[in-house]
Structure prediction request, 313 residues.
Amino acid sequence: MAIAARSRPDPDPYALKGNRTRDLGERVIHGLLLACALLSVITTLAIIYVLLEETVGFFQKVSFLDYATGTKWSALIEPRSFGILPLVWGTIMVAGIAGVIAIPIGLGAAVYLSEYADQRVRSILKPTLEILAGVPTIVYGFFAVNWITPHLQDIFGDRVGFFNGLSAGIVVGIMVIPMVSSLSEDAMHAVPQSLREGAYGLGSTKFDVSTRVVIPAALSGIVASFILALSRAVGETMAVVLAAGSTPNLSLDPFQSFQTMTAFIVQVALGDAPTGSIEYQALFAVGMTLFVMTLAMNVVSQLLLARYRDVYQ
Prediction:
């Protein structure tokens, strides 16, 4: 006896229309996200192109060896000299002092917020600490000139000039503390609670858990916060211009005036350097040097992150 074949129900036209609309929406979102990614890449490539175009012209007039190894920088006055080392040293001096200030204080604040503070205290202290990140950098510069430098002069006497690298380093260090503390605290907060409970079960104290369990487990995020903070210190401009001055100096004395690479860029950008002149092209050469330095720092940070992420994944 033949069995009648069951007829399939006709597809719901409203369901098909809804699926087509959903697929179209997904394609639009995919296209928008791809455009955002490509825009960031294109912007980076455009910046590199602009820097390279004038940098190549600069090195057609100035020897790269003299630029990379010279110990005197005098790009705006005669006799002109284009040794980048004083600007690089001033940048390293300010960033190094900032790191000495920001890394221990920021890490200590992160450990307290993550491991010691209760939720109510954490909800108050963390936003308060992050307010520092919203203060304009020019305000930090005035703070350095009108408060930090006079106090340094009271302590160390006439050795401290009105413009000095120590004041600039201290104020930049204060500026990047929120970056270290916030990113480090987020990394520690993401450590599984089971690791802490296991350590407490073995008789560890809260300090032991913090320093021997949580910090090693969150080390990738902590190292990332350090590198980002130092990169921020290297690229700081207005606070350094006001506090450190504009004197290219290759000295170990932090009480003297220094000029960083960003400070020189501001000095030329606000001046009357004719387009195509050697001082104008020097601005782009210094900018390319700064770009390479920050790129190298980010590459090193990625290598460190990859290493420690493999250990504590």
